[in-house]
Amino acid sequence: MTAPEAPGSPVRFGLVGYGFGGRYFHAPLLGSAPGCQLLGVVTTSRERRALVEEDSPGRATFASLEALRDAGVEAVAISTPAATHSELTDRALELGLAVVCDKPFALDAAAARRSVALADRHGLVLAPYQNRRWDSDFLTVRRLVADGILGDVVRFESRFERLDPDAGPGASGGGTLLDFGSHLVDQALVLLGPVASVYAEWRLRENGLDDDVFVALTHTGGGRSHLWGSWSQAAPGPRFRVTGTAAGYVNRTPMDGQEELLLAGHTPATLGPDWGAEPAERWGRVHRGADGQTVPTEHGAWDTFYPAFARAVRGAGPNPVDPRDAIASMTVLDAARRSATEGIVVRPA
User: What pLDDT was estimated at residue 173?
Assistant: First the structure.
């Protein structure tokens, strides 16, 4: 178990992996997060070690988790190919490190359960990196629901759709169901709770990986979620259409803007209070039949995850994402995989 530290001291982090997610998402957010100190990056690639030096001159690189631990790291963020997530998570936990693991947290629910049990056994904080809970548009949906503006939600429609057929997860990424589905299903569970049944469809690419995924969830509370994920959609639909008993909400903006900001080189530290702000032309609308009203979009808040995780490591606050939520999501995704393969409705085990 990690040795006790002073409550106010920053948590010493290491980043495992420096591909797209590590370089453009985790490194900038960790590097600008209050309560966090990024000590270095684990990568065995000469090219990626050069990128670390280019992006952050002087930042240390390491060849293994063990070397990172020996350098005094207390927690790691894992951003490597999906097929390595469970192995690296479990190894880090065995080394006494708290862990943030990018999506998909695991390739199936059984692996997720093993990691959560291991964290419990060692008394370590473990969190799936569900940053999309803090998307500007999803925070807006949650605000509208909490304020009673929509009434009871009866249908939640959510899309991650892009036209970039040469992109998407590689063979080690598990396909679009696990890639986009990890976020889509998590948001649906956050909004509408546990799932009673799952129906899914997909199209298999020539490489055998799935794309153009559709997942229909019936929640135990009676609401329904319709979720789409695609890297091959020439006409993306609305990011959200949420139907309630009192009103509906539609946001046609393709995606929250925080990814764009990070790719442009901005961070929460450089933008300050402007971080996560969406321009008015990207705001959604609340509809009641023919009547519609534009409503301001909440500021995106990806920058809140790592400070909250650091507080949890110090015992000063709750874990921002309960790792058992990853088990719930993976159980639904396991059912969706079976449904799409066999063409049946599946009740999650």
Answer: 63
